[in-house]
Hepatocyte growth factor-like
Amino acid sequence: MKAEIIWIYKLFLCVVLAVNSECRKQSLQQYQKSEDTRLLCPDCPQPSMVKYSRSLEHCARKCSKNKKTFTCRAFYFDHQNRKCHLLPFDRFMDGAHREYRVNFDLYEKKDYVRECIIGSGVNYKGRRAVTKDKIPCQSWTESFPHEHTFQPARLGKKDLNGNFCRNPKNESSGPWCFTTDPEVRHQECGLPQCSQVECMRCNGEDYKGPMDHTDSGKECQRWDSSKPHRHPYQPKKYPDKGLNDNYCRNPDNRLRPWCYTLDPQTPWEYCNISVCDPGNDSDVDATSSCFREQGQSYHGTVSVTPSGVTCQRWDSQFPHNHTYSPQNYKCKDLRENYCRNPDGAEIPWCFTTDPNQRLAFCTNIPRCETENIDTEDCYEDNGGNYTGNLSKTRSGIPCGLWANHSNSGESSVGLERNLCRNPDQDKHGPWCHTTDPSIPWDYCKLKRCDKSPNISAHPRSISLVSKTSCFIHKTTRIVGGAQVHKAKDGSWVVSIQKGVGYSTDCL
Ligand SMILES: *[C@@H]1O[C@H](CO)[C@@H](O)[C@H](O)[C@H]1NC(C)=O
Ligand SMILES: *[C@@H]1O[C@H](CO)[C@@H](O)[C@H](O)[C@H]1NC(C)=O
Ligand SMILES: *[C@@H]1O[C@H](CO)[C@@H](O)[C@H](O)[C@H]1NC(C)=O
Ligand SMILES: *[C@@H]1O[C@H](CO)[C@@H](O)[C@H](O)[C@H]1NC(C)=O
Ligand SMILES: *[C@@H]1O[C@H](CO)[C@@H](O)[C@H](O)[C@H]1NC(C)=O
Ligand SMILES: *[C@@H]1O[C@H](CO)[C@@H](O)[C@H](O)[C@H]1NC(C)=O
Ligand SMILES: *[C@@H]1O[C@H](CO)[C@@H](O)[C@H](O)[C@H]1NC(C)=O
Ligand SMILES: *[C@@H]1O[C@H](CO)[C@@H](O)[C@H](O)[C@H]1NC(C)=O
């Protein structure tokens, strides 16, 4: 009864404060969104109701108001014509089908389409109709084999539909039903908690499950809403993070999935999600002498940065304090001071023992050779004429703009944007400045075209090189107190000399 009074009070507030955008925004809370979709059911007994609506939220509020004769289970909104389609059916109704339609967004009430519960499952309106011992449920309208007083007509709001499991009295044991077994009057249905239906691995970075309440039981705020908390994790900006509706997610490598909460006093909280049995969780993709893709499975022992600075131990907070402790990130293999990629960076990295350089990418770890270069691109001879669109170094670091590194006297013809080029006819092919401050430049992830003979066997390219090879990489920077310049084999060396670093082709 108390809960109902609170609910009525909230509704009253929303009606009185119709201009209050908080009520408006949060009207989408209970819904599951499907973008560019509508839901049709030509054969359903009751047709949908179409109304003009000034906004999506307005449409949602119409659907949330249950009428005696029309139970709205879902709605879709036609953004272009501002038409609000209220649906007395959901996607699981016989004959209902979803259809792709640009500019239409479908919102279904979670209580109808989700087969898990939060807490006691008092709002559960799903389609489970067997008990935990697999006994089929008795229909609520029937009084055989068990007579009872739960009349659907009288308890309209409880949705005592068909023979589906329900929890009309908010019992802590969850939804239940009368059974068709004369020996068993009623039994609970064993519906799983939403926190348990999908387990999480590691720190739950890939968790895409349906939990939408925090540890302390607070309801999560929708990711596509900025009420009550403004935040940077707009789903459109992070399409691969699964920021759907208001589910607990871990888009930023925190310890566990979390969410913003509806409580204005509590910006965010962690969620309690079951952890997968580690069992055979050994990383089959682990590599040690080289790394694949972004190197998240690199388990090797490189522990110096490309410029020769020793990496900081992961279990140390000195000289740099950080949150990537081995005990917090158990499956990231943060042993010793080895280069790792615990946060989905481009490639493995480490904190450095140089107080002036917080972290460095370990571009000194090679990529695995078996890995296909993901581009068909190749260059002829030394790549001096290369005009392709690649703009990543061999270790995957994005190239920096040439314009930011312009040398007076250097011909900037063809040095477009941040594309890989070879303005100094470097023997080892096209290169670029990088966006990693600790790596002034590096070669690009390009192959020499097969038909092109190798450079030492090709007299013309040798003459080409000797003609123009005194291009100066003036971008040399002081890194960790030392000068970095290019060496013959393309690897990095640390120089203690002051001055400009020259391409060794000149020397
Ligand atoms: C259901 O019961 C739980 C505790 O048992 C309570 O917290 C919750 O408010 C109740 N819900 C309703 C709708 O009565
Ligand atoms: C988290 O869930 C587990 C299993 O359901 C439960 O035992 C534990 O008490 C929960 N922890 C919190 C903080 O809610
Ligand atoms: C691990 O996997 C192997 C083979 O895939 C299997 O023989 C072994 O029983 C598994 N161990 C565990 C603990 O699951
Ligand atoms: C690192 O130390 C600074 C200053 O002592 C502190 O403000 C900051 O919160 C610390 N960061 C972490 C991740 O511990
Ligand atoms: C690059 O292009 C110039 C002029 O277009 C041409 O003379 C030269 O032979 C080309 N060099 C290579 C290595 O293909
Ligand atoms: C490179 O990109 C430009 C525009 O971004 C495009 O017009 C051109 O065809 C691309 N070239 C190659 C070789 O893919
Ligand atoms: C590079 O240049 C662009 C535009 O010219 C500028 O926005 C950017 O801040 C520059 N970056 C650096 C590192 O100087
Ligand atoms: C490059 O040329 C040398 C000498 O002719 C030859 O031994 C070597 O196999 C060649 N390498 C490639 C990749 O063709």
